[in-house]
Design brief:
Chain lengths: ~550, ~180
Amino acid sequence: MRRTPLPASARWQPLAVLMLVLTATALLLGLGSQAHAHAALVDIQPADGAVVAHAPQGFSLSFSEPTSPLVLKLVRPDGSSTVLDRYTLRDATLDIIAPADLGTGTHVLTWRVISEDGHPVGGSSIFSIGAPSAGGLVAPQEAVDWPLRIAIWAARTLLYAGLFIGVGGVFFTSFVGGGTRPVQRTHAVLMLAGLAAVLLSVGLQGLDALDLPLGSLVAALPWKTGLATSYGLTAEIAAASLVAGLAALAVPRQIGRLLTVLAFIGIGLALSASGHASAAHPQWLTRPAVFLHAVGIAFWAGALLPLGVAFASRTSDATPMLRRFSRLIPVALLPLVAAGLLLAAIQLASPSALWTTAYGRVLLAKLVLLAALFALAALNRFRLTGPAEAGDGVAAGRLARSIRVEIILVLAIFAVAAAWRFTPPPRALAEAAARPAELHIHTEKAMAEVTVKPGHVGPVSVGIVIMTGDFGPLDAKGLTLVVSNPAAGIEPIRRTATKGADAVWRVGKLDLPLPGRWQIRLDILVSDFELVKIEDAIDIRP
Amino acid sequence: MKTIKTLLFAATALALGTAAASAHVTLETQEAPVPSTYKAVFRVGHGCEGKPTIKIRVQIPEGVIAVKPQPKPGWTIEKVKAPYAKSYDYYGTPTSEGVKEIVWSGGSLADDEYDEFVLRAYLTGDLKPDTVLYFPVVQECPDGAAERWIEIPAAGKSADDYETPAPGVKLVPKK
């Protein structure tokens, strides 16, 4: 076999290839062990957290060294994201052309770039056009159990009738007059119905609390649960009040009077023990207000039946009774109206809530009925009372009819007010929306209490209390909050926290544009040379 | 032969060049035997997000003694001394205190310039071979800006898993 001499270059070829392979290996090793050139963001336009008047034409990201983009995304206020694929690289600056159809609200510009060494770096920046998105309040949509709801409503209406007309009536008859047999029989029937309603309502309340259907009323659990809720106390006091009112009819007059006073006070106590209005703050104000409102109603409503019957049957004591009622009613009415206005103002929180919320609309319906009731009451007072007291038969007849209409109106008001049971007041809605999201992170090195307020999407402020892993004080030199939403593809957003005089670290300007699970990381600079990172996830409501 | 030399030179330059472009503060010599004297060259490739570096602070880890920084024109050196956690053997002399931190200050290294900060130290036999020894470094810039290369990887993790890892040197047994 003849060997042809290889050209000089070819003779070196295997060696050259070997050298190249070795070099490449060295290069790779070098990269792996030390060349972590993470490009740092030097400048961004619009600035992180900025609010700009008009939609920007473009975005620019300047890094500490040249980079090339992997992912550029814009998350819009509605949560949708747009891939930004029109960009130019100018040295270490990345100029991105913004989509033309940007609306107002909070946007997140999220990027992932790769620097020279092949290390990807990601980050996010938030800016708002016009104003930051407030964050939508989406009320949870639950299926309504109508039979249960109607049962609760009916029981409540009956309870109001039993307390206000029944117990209120017994109180009126024992102090003012008109306690004829048919009147007291009606009072007794109303109080018995109220008693049945209040007992039943405990079980219904339990069903509602446990989210069980009406059929489950045969079990013991809903009853126990109902008693355990704040309504339990209301039911107990109301039942005691009704029993006292019933007993007052069967015992001698002096003891009966004492019982009716106790029963009358019980009305106020029962209603101020639970419910939306009593739960509102400040409670030192709302609870007495509910009490005054309730006893005021009881006095007024309690007077209607005895007065109406007295005028209808033209009994002799009708006129003196009316005179005494007329003298007393301002004393009851003034606190009743004042307390009602105060509670409405607290509950509504803003005037527009009157027509924008279900609670407000119930109040509006109640106000319409009240206007009719007051008109009628004014008519009785200023046009009919005088002639009726003077013995005018026609006026007395009209007064009796008018009072009958008043009773119907009062019952209608009770029915409307009972519907409030299902409408959280705007105040409570606002409180629920403002409820913070909280997170507790506990590791060996450090622990933290993170409070995101409010706990829903939109602009939030974050409060952070840090401690050492064994609950000791942790006097950190610095704290950086890093939030990201990996599921939504939002790269880390960084904010430097500032320490307040109360030792709470705070981040004031942060926008969380999307609901869901956000990753929260705290970079705690314990000392100049020691950094502790702790992280966990937090749920942000829509 | 000349071809190989050129190729080799180019490859070396490329490998070193890439490493030198590193944005992190890193150590030039990545491996050192214990016990031995080690020349630590801290390579600073950039400032703090565009700002110039005006101070470099290096924390000396436990087990590293007889630290001597190399003077640097334009920079003042401060040697912060403190007791060690234990007494170390320095060629037969027990040593229980010494330099725990070196601070270079007074200079200004622009963001687009490169420089090296050098110290020499003795890596005592108490250091375990086949581990990585980390030198946390704080790089300070005007207006309170700082870069802290102080993250020490947890067991099972490498410096690559961190955003601001401390520069490290792999310790190997003495041959």
